[in-house]
């Protein structure tokens, strides 16, 4: 079940990133993050009330709070890095965040079998190549590398934290709700600061575009929430190291979605990376 939940996570995260990427062509990136997460928080709030999730409140929720703080910070660093440096460097480098949950699993005493270790190595190399790393061109600024590594650490921290935020499914709904509330609070504060500084926070046609795009924003937010939920289930049902690596296959999904829907052509290195990532996932699932 670990492999099934983790692969579902990579599918959902990949589709959420693809949808979010399309929306950021019309909206500022921070606005997309805040609005999509706010829509998801509303739906999660209804689910928590309907399932009596408040009864699961306890110390574990602090992990959800921490994940809610780390998430927007990681996203802001990631988007800032993308604005400063080549996406072909930033995108694959950000996947090194998988080292955080893998390291947590090792600290907690998990020891993958040799075949799974090989699978982890093959999958991580494939994930990096699937992002289409830029192998030529001008040197990348140190600030860009720093921001990218900070975002990677943040994304990895969210994966590690959310896996510890609940003990059952009902508690998971509450944890995801709390995570989204904190994310919206911090993201909203950042959005307010940006607006005060004169940055653009709405598309050219104003609030009308927001209302028309709200279903798409909600879909992106809910897909991201579902991915967090399936990842938590994956990490609970098996080794965190295996769950984290399989869940990190989402760049492959995003690249394939762009190929199938937008007709973007994959570079040879991306196709090779996708093949390696899938091979690594097979080794992890069968190890």
Automatic annotation (TrEMBL):
This is DMT family transporter. The keyword Membrane applies. Belongs to the EamA transporter family. It comes from Streptomyces humicola. InterPro entries: EamA_dom (IPR000620), EmrE-like (IPR037185). Pfam families: EamA. Residues 4-130, 144-285 form the EamA domain. Signal peptide: none annotated.
